[in-house]
Each structure stands twice: as structure tokens, then as C-alpha cells.
TrEMBL record:
SUPFAM superfamilies: (Trans)glycosidases (SSF51445). GO terms for biological process: alpha-glucan catabolic process; trehalose biosynthetic process. It holds the Pfam family Alpha-amylase. It comes from Streptomyces klenkii. InterPro entries: GH, GH13_cat_dom, Maltooligo_trehalose_synth_4, Trehalose_TreY. This is Malto-oligosyltrehalose synthase.
Length: 797
């Protein structure tokens, strides 16, 4: 088996493939991307997906490369052209789920399950609870209750008749096609149902709360082989070179899956989209190179936040909005309320399945038999909402990791406070022990253990990423995947400790700044982060704008919209309402306080649209200009500083398409627009040109000197000496390259700048700064080193 660290890229470049940007378009960009300096292209999912999909995570056929992208020949042609230019390919794979498409014929295995029921050869593929609904799969696809929608069903076709409803087509159980419609429906292995029933009645596992994505049981060796055959073939034939694994936390046994994948992939470089919360560590026994890099993103962003200013900004936000603590005013309280709402509403079906399974476990034990279902339900909810990470990784029959035991012990102890009768509080220990696999190894025990962890992951994602991040908005740059808005700032000491740990434990891990899933691109976040250096000015500006532009439907939305507009910048040109309005609407729907996706308030949403179009996208936008001018040096330092740190810190940097130059994007679908590489090549002036120059220079250095930055390299923090030492972050890689960035630029300027601050370079001698070509001795004064750019990268002369 290969060592994934030895086969690691030096840098990857993420391309978001879609019908408007297929393999052929990527192939045309290869010469440019090769000249940029990356070693591998990082492709979004390439297997067959729902027609028109702009992301590819809705897989319909694991055995075929997506025809809309150019099919397998298009992928092989891209691979050949990439290799001619010295590039490899890394591909995103989706093991957790497949699409429930319209029509269902697009998903062959699911079609057979719907036709033949649990006797189907594909029944083992999908995570379906056949004990519910009389052995039928509930399909929540109807626009209204069945009684109101019956007239819309038709039977069509001759050789193989199908049941049609709108765009949907479903198979018919053989011999039932001539039955009257009500009897025909009753005779199927599925039950078409009102879409609102999914919340409480769904009996198949799905991706988060997306009923159109049905979970796949890749823990079954046969299912794994069938769903990974094409990818493994492409790996072994050298068409692709590495893998990104989407959402491993959705799997029943992530460690088992990754060991099986490592064997099939023969140890090629693989990273996993594991979101680490706080100081959580990636399980050491996972046979991967590391994560996709959201943990790095949090440290990189946090380094450029003023901790005092971030706190003051939070206070101004609370004063301005008047939000209650649990509805956006306080981060922990907001998360807790959101979690209660998600587990009792959006994930009610998943929660109730766990309660039923726990009840059967208790029924089989004399010791536990009198544990009441209501107590199990209460304990389950209270424990799940208290987990500070996405999930534990316990498997019945395997030793429990101490970190998982500690997490569940603390959550169970806290959950006891929800009970008034101590004896009934024992249900918390039952749920804890079942979640840790301590109560046995039978089918129900294994099912509860896996489903508890999978539900915990979905709850964390939906309550934090998709709800609380939109309700708590004092500093939008901190509300990013893997982020901690309660403690957004990261000190240089903590950053260095994190980097040293990466180099020691996961030197080939992925690192990112922008992705297809970030709510705001790195450069938008860099602009917003600068507001932490002037909380009073921002708060005062918001008060003036609220008085002058009273059209906001509420003050939370006003703060959100204006801060988003500031992040998009610059104030000198009108904001694009076609981009900003959808982003703000998505934010208020996800927050779910005044309107939601499923219960939209049309009057409120119209008020939001009118406000955003006339305020942040109108003439009033000019009010941002003075503050933007004052913060321009800080924004430049933040953007270039984060870019340089990302490219030189431990790990494999992944660049999202277009981010080699200034790139302002909002939440999807805004961040999935096809790239225009001619614009990137034509970039010759301004901050965008500076960023492109920095990116190209450093990427080429990484490619030429991989030993300075790779698995065998070293990481050494360097401390500046002088009054501005705290504004400098510096480190050496293998004693041969030194990264220097400045931070908190506005406070630095007000305190006198860098003239008396010196950095001692390792080993003495002369050094060359690669961005400018300037030469320096072993003790450069930072004012001279950072005279042209707020960052520097030195190599031995």
C-alpha cells in the first residue's frame, strides 16, 4: 500500500464542474493552471448525477461518469492533457447518499427497490426501516395531502407501465398495473405522501434533512464494491490520483469505511470532509492524509481578528438588534435553542426511530425494561443538543475511545437536569451506554449506536451551520463551516501550536480558505474581519443608516445586509442586487425566525427584497465609502496575509476556482458560477494583481521545492522583537523559507508602525524576498521588509 503522504500533491485547484463548465472547459484551462503552479486539479463529483445539477452530489449511477460533463472519454481526455502539463487529478466522491430523482428511473437501484420491495437485490443498498408503514417506503413528493392529489396520478406505458405524478415516475409492482388507482397505490412497495410528512414519518435515512437524497449503506462490503468500482478502476488505471471523501460523518462506521477505501485505493492521497469543532482532533486511526481543511480555515481567519474589537462588535450588535439571547443575542444560547428546534421538528423522524430502537433494547433487558419511552425521548434530545462536536465514533464490540466516552459522560450528566424524578433520569445513562455500544452487540444495539452518531452529525450541521450561523451575526466572517462565533479570534501562539501539530501528525492534510460550501469567500471574510478593528465606527454607522434608511424589516436583517455589502465591496460601485438579494433572502430563511423555506412569509420577504435593493444596493451604499477607505490597508493585509499563510503553512493548500486573484462570492449558488480564466490572466493591476502575483510565485516555489513544505519538512515559529512584535506572525519551513505577515493593521498604524521591530532569521546569511526580489541580512527591520507588501516570503540568497 502506498503512503498517502508520499503521494500528496503540492497544491490542488478546485474546479466546480457542471453542464456549463464540463471536462472540456477544464481541459482548456489546464495550460493556465499548470503555469499557476498547482500540482493537481481537484474535481467536484464526476459520476452520473441528476440532470442539470450544478454540484454533482446527487449521484444517480456509480458505474458511469456523468454524460453532461463529457462522459468517461471526456474525463480521460482531461486526465491526458493534465498529465502532458505535469498535473494530476483528485476527485470528490460521495459515499453517503444517492439522489431520489424525478423521475425515479434515473436511479436504477432505487427503481428496483421501489418495484420489488425488500426482496430486491438492491434492498441492502439503502438505509430503509421496512418495519414502518407496513413495509412501504414513504416518498414525500406530493404537493398536498394524498386525498387532494389523487386526481393527478396516471398510469402510462405498455411494456413496463409506470405511475406518474407531475415530473415523477415510479415503478409498478408486477401484476398491479390494471388495478383501480386506490388499490394500485395500496399494492406498491412505496407510499407517495404529502411532502410535509417527511418531518415525522420518513422511514429512510437521508442527507441531513434533504429527502431527495437517500442514504447508502456503504458499510456493507457488497454495496461498497458496487458503489466504488468505477472510482477504483479510474484510480488503478492512473486516470485519477487521489480522493476527497464527502461527509464521512454520515456513515455508520467511518473508520471501517476508510480502511476499506484505503485498501481499494491502494493508499493514494485521500482527505475527508470532517468538520472538527473547537480543539477536536481527527481520529488518529483513520487511514487518510487528513481533513479537507476547514479546521485550518478557522485558524487562518481568526488570526486576523482583533479579539477585543470582536467582543465590542458583539456588544454593539446586541444593542442595535435587541435580540434575545437565544434568538441571536448570545452564541451558546442561540445554538442550544436551534438544536432543540431541529431535533424536535426537522429531525423528528430520525429522533423517533432512535426512541423506538432504544425501547426495544430496554424491552430485551429485565434491568432496563421499565425505562419509559418518554424518558428515553427526553434523554435522547437532551444529550444530543449538548454534544459540542458533530458525532462520536463508537462501534459495538470495539474499544470506546476515551474522548467519546468523556463527551457522552458529560452530556448525560448535564441531561439529568431535565428530569424532576431522579429514578427517571437514569434514562440518560441508558441512552449514553447505548450510544457508546455498551449494552450489547445485537442488531438493535448496532443500529442505535450508528444511528445516534449519524443523527448527531445531522443535528450539529443543521442547528449550527444552517440555523445558528444565520441567527447570530455580529461578525459574519466568523460564521463559517467549522467556525466558532463565540470565540472567533485566534492568537499567534495558538496558530503556531496548531501548525506544529499539523506538521507532526497530519503533514499532508488539506487546507482551504474558500470552497463550494463556504458562506462567503475568503476575500469577503477578509474585508468583514477588518471591522473588528473599528467596532465603534461600524456601530455608529449602523445607527446612522437605520435612521436614514428605515426600510429594513428588522434590525438583524439590516446589520446582516449592510455587513454583507461591505464584504462584497467596493462602495464606489453599486452592489449587484441579483447576487445580494438572494443571499440575504437565503439567510433569513435559514435563520427561520420570521420566514422559512417551508413556511415563507411573502410580505416579510418582499420587505427584505425592497430594503436590500434600495439600501445596500442603492445610493445609500455610498455611506460605506469612508469606512472602506479607512480600512483599505487592513483589508489588503488580511487578504494577502491569509493567502500567504495558507500557501506556506503545513498541509496541502487547495485553491477554489478564481481565488488566485481577488474573489468576492457569497453563499451558493453565487459561489458556483463557472470561472472565467481569461479574466484571471488579464489581471494586471491593483489588489487582484498583487494576490495573483503572490499566489503564482508561492505555488511555483512549492512545486520546485516540495521538500521544504511536505511531510518531511519542519515548522519553526519565529518571534519578532520590538514594540510591534504582536502584529507580526512569522515561521520558517525547513530552515529554507520564511513567511512573514502583518496583522491588525489599523491598530498597528495608530501605534507607530514597524520601524523599531526586527525579525531574526534562522541561520544567519543573506536572504531574498521572492515577491520583490529584494535582499536582506539576518535581522531585517520589519518596516523595510514589509515596505512594498504587508507580507513577505524569504528564501536563502
Amino acid at each position: 500500500m502506498r503512503d498517502p503522504q508520499r503521494s500528496a500533491p503540492t497544491a490542488t485547484y478546485r474546479l466546480q464542474l457542471q453542464p456549463g463548465f464540463p471536462f472540456r472547459a477544464a481541459e482548456e484551462a489546464v495550460p493556465y493552471l499548470a503555469s499557476l503552479g498547482v500540482s493537481h486539479l481537484h474535481l467536484s463529483p464526476v459520476l452520473e448525477a441528476v440532470p442539470g445539477s450544478t454540484h454533482g452530489y446527487d449521484v444517480t449511477d456509480h458505474s458511469a461518469v456523468r454524460a453532461e460533463l463529457g462522459g468517461e472519454e471526456g474525463l480521460r481526455s482531461l486526465s491526458r492533457t493534465a498529465r502532458e502539463h505535469g498535473l494530476g487529478l483528485v476527485v470528490d466522491i460521495v459515499p453517503n447518499h444517492m439522489a431520489v430523482p424525478a423521475p425515479a428511473t434515473l436511479n436504477g437501484p432505487l427503481w428496483e427497490v421501489l418495484r420489488d420491495g425488500p426482496a430486491s437485490r438492491y434492498a441492502r443498498w439503502f438505509d430503509i426501516d421496512w418495519a414502518e408503514h407496513g413495509g412501504k417506503v414513504l416518498l414525500p413528493v406530493l404537493a398536498g395531502p394524498l386525498g387532494q392529489e389523487l386526481h393527478r396520478f396516471t398510469v402510462a406505458g405498455h411494456s413496463e407501465p409506470v405511475l406518474r405524478y407531475g415530473d415523477h415516475a415510479f415503478p409498478l409492482r408486477p401484476g398491479t398495473e390494471r388495478l383501480p388507482l386506490p388499490e394500485l397505490l395500496d399494492a406498491q412497495w412505496y407510499r407517495p405522501a404529502w411532502w410535509r410528512l417527511a418531518r415525522t414519518e420518513l422511514n429512510y435515512r437521508r442527507f441531513f434533512t434533504v429527502s431527495e437524497l437517500i442514504a447508502v449503506r456503504v458499510e456493507d462490503p457488497e454495496v461498497f464494491a458496487a458503489t466504488h468500482g468505477k472510482v477504483v478502476q479510474l484510480l488503478r488505471e492512473g486516470v485519477i490520483d487521489g480522493l476527497r471523501v464527502d461527509h464521512p460523518d454520515g456513515l455508520a462506521d467511518p473508520a471501517g469505511y476508510l480502511h476499506r477505501l484505503a485498501g481499494a485505493a491502494e493508499g493514494r492521497w485521500t482527505v475527508v470532509e470532517k468538520i472538527l469543532s473547537g480543539e477536536e482532533r481527527l481520529p488518529a486511526d483513520w487511514p487518510v492524509a487528513g481533513t479537507t481543511g476547514y479546521d485550518a480555515l478557522r485558524r487562518l481567519d481568526g488570526l486576523f481578528l482583533d479579539p477585543e474589537g470582536a467582543g465590542a462588535l458583539g456588544a454593539r450588535y446586541r444593542d442595535f438588534t435587541g435580540l434575545p439571547p437565544d434568538r441571536g443575542g448570545d452564541w451558546p444560547a442561540t445554538v442550544r435553542r436551534a438544536a432543540y428546534k431541529v431535533i424536535t421538528h426537522e429531525l423528528a423522524a430520525e429522533s423517533e426511530r432512535l426512541v423506538r430502537t432504544a425501547g426495544r433494547i430496554c424491552e430485551g433487558s429485565h434491568r432496563l425494561r421499565d425505562t419509559a419511552p418518554w424518558a428515553l425521548r427526553t434523554a435522547l434530545h437532551e444529550i444530543l443538543v449538548r454534544l459540542p462536536v458533530y458525532r462520536p465514533y463508537a462501534v459495538p464490540g470495539r474499544p470506546v475511545a476515551p474522548v467519546d466516552a468523556a463527551l457522552l459522560d458529560q452530556a448525560a450528566q448535564d441531561a439529568r437536569g431535565a428530569f424532576t424524578v431522579p429514578e427517571e433520569a437514569a434514562a440518560a445513562e441508558v441512552v449514553r451506554d447505548a450510544a457508546l455500544g455498551r449494552l450489547g452487540q445485537g442488531p438493535d444495539h448496532r443500529d442505535f449506536c450508528a444511528r445516534f452518531a449519524q443523527t448527531a452529525s445531522a443535528l450539529r450541521a443543521k442547528s449550527v451551520e444552517d440555523t445558528a450561523f444565520y441567527r447570530h451575526a455580529p461578525l459574519l466572517s466568523a460564521t463559517e463551516v467549522g467556525g466558532d462565533p463565540g470565540r472567533p479570534a485566534v492568537s499567534p501562539e495558538d496558530f503556531h501550536a496548531y501548525c506544529a501539530r499539523l506538521q507532526r501528525d497530519w503533514p499532508a492534510t488539506g487546507t482551504v480558505l474558500s470552497t463550494h460550501d463556504t458562506k462567503r469567500s475568503a476575500d469577503v471574510r477578509a474585508r468583514i474581519a477588518a471591522l473588528s478593528e473599528c467596532p465603534a465606527e461600524w456601530g455608529d454607522l449602523m445607527e446612522r443608516l437605520a435612521a436614514a434608511e428605515p426600510g429594513a424589516p428588522d434590525r438583524h436583517t439590516a446589520w446582516l445586509a449592510w455587513q454583507t455589502a461591505f464584504g462584497l465591496g467596493p462602495a464606489g460601485r453599486p452592489a449587484d442586487a441579483s447576487r445580494l438579494v438572494p443571499a440575504v433572502l437565503k439567510s433569513v430563511r435559514e435563520a427561520g425566525l420570521r420566514t422559512t423555506w417551508t413556511e415563507p412569509d411573502a410580505r416579510y420577504e418582499a420587505a427584505v427584497e425592497a430594503f436590500v435593493a434600495g439600501g445596500p444596493c442603492g445610493a445609500a451604499r455610498a455611506a460605506l465609502a469612508p469606512l472602506e477607505d479607512a480600512l483599505r490597508p487592513s483589508v489588503r493585509a488580511n487578504m494577502l496575509g491569509a493567502a500567504l499563510l495558507h500557501l506556506t503553512m503545513p498541509g496541502v493548500p487547495d485553491l477554489y476556482m478564481g481565488t488566485e486573484h481577488a474573489y468576492a462570492a457569497l453563499v451558493d449558488p453565487d459561489n458556483r458560477r463557472p470561472p472565467v480564466f481569461s479574466e484571471a490572466e488579464a489581471c494586471t493591476e491593483g489588489l487582484s494583481a498583487e494576490k495573483l502575483h503572490l499566489t503564482r510565485t508561492v505555488l511555483r516555489l512549492r512545486r520546485e521545492r516540495p521538500e521544504w513544505f511536505g511531510a518531511g519538512a519542519s515548522y519553526e515559529p519565529l518571534a519578532a522583537d520590538g514594540p510591534a512584535a504582536g502584529h507580526c506572525v512569522a515561521f520558517a519551513r525547513s530552515g529554507e523559507a520564511v513567511t512573514v505577515v502583518s496583522r491588525l493593521h489599523r491598530r498597528l498604524t495608530r501605534s507607530g508602525g514597524l520601524p523599531e521591530t526586527v525579525l531574526a532569521l534562522p541561520g544567519g546569511g543573506r536572504w531574498r524576498e521572492v515577491l520583490t526580489g529584494a535582499s536582506f541580512g539576518p535581522h531585517p527591520v520589519l518596516a523595510e521588509l514589509l515596505e512594498r507588501y504587508p507580507v513577505a516570503l524569504l528564501v536563502r540568497a
